[in-house]
Amino acid sequence: MHVLSRDEALSILLVDDADDQAKAPLNEGREIVIALSEQDLRTIELSLCDVVVSMDRREFTDHMPLDVHEALRWADDLRLLRQSVFEEREAIPLSSPAVRARRIDWAAWSKVDSEASSPRTDEALFCISEDDLAVMSSAVRHATDRDPAVMNPVDGRLMTDDTVGRALRASFESMARNFYRRA
Fold first, then answer.
1. 138 in Cβ contact with 53 (< 8 Å)
2. First and final CA of the chain: distance in angstroms?
3. Other CB atoms closer than 10 Å to residue 78's CB: what's the count?
4. pLDDT tens-digit profile of 162-177?
5. Measuring CA to CA, which residue among 11, 177, 24 is closest to residue 103?
6. How far is 9 from 31, CA to CA, in rounded Å?
7. Distance from C-alpha of 98 to C-alpha of 38, rounded to nearest angstrom
8. Which pLDDT belongs to residue 154?
9. What are residue 3's phi and psi, to 5 degrees?
10. pTM for this one?
């Protein structure tokens, strides 16, 4: 996963649209453009940390698409990414309206007045792979659902708003279902 400038996002969307017009097959290494808010990144980061602390180590690799050390590295990378992309400010409480994870497609981008074509001040554009999406979705799902067969109870949960987690998870699941569809 990496941050995109508007020009880079446009380039990816134009190539995807040209491939669609040419009826070219979708490749397995496909990446899509998404928008994430500052809160979305923080929620994923907190979810990864919660999963690492709460999940039984023997079951971790059965339920997560990466190992414990990779999950910690992901959480740290997301924190650094969030800090580099967004102005540092006091963390505000998580809220459902601030969940804005969404796929950006050519049809939305091409509309001049489209909200999708211009990220808000607390959003950024990212290019993600299917594997990246699986990591983010799985972390948020486990941190939110907290299946007692997989997750140990802990006192200091970081990702404390399950409503926000469920909203973000729904966005990720929608992206995953349509990952290999033309936008």
1. no
2. 19
3. 24
4. 888 899 999 999 999 8
5. 177
6. 11
7. 9
8. 64
9. -75, 145
10. 0.87
Structure tokens at 130: 């299917």
Inform me whether the pLDDT recorded for 53 exceeds 90: no
Q: Which of 101, 68, 94 is nearest to 159 (CA)?
A: 94
| CA dist., res. 148 & res. 59, Å (int) | 12
Question: And the tokens for 30?
Answer: 């496909």
- Tell me which of 152 and 128 has the higher pLDDT: 128
CA distance 65 to 135: 6
User: What is the secondary structure of 32-90 as a DSSP string?
Assistant: EEEEEEHHHHHHHHHHHHHHHHHB-HHHHHHHSSS-HHHHHHHHHHHHHHHHHHS---P
98, 168 Cβ separation under 8 angstroms? no
Res. 96: pLDDT tops 60: yes
Question: Which uninterrupted H or E stretch holds 125?
Answer: strand 123-129
Instruction: Determine how many CB atoms are found less than 10 A away from the CB of residue 159.
Output: 25
Checking phi first, is residue 23 left (phi over 0); if not, alpha (psi -120 to 50) or beta? left
Q: How many CA atoms lie within 13 A of 160 on its CB side?
A: 8
Cα separation, 4 vs 127, whole angstroms: 7
Structure tokens at 71: 């999950």
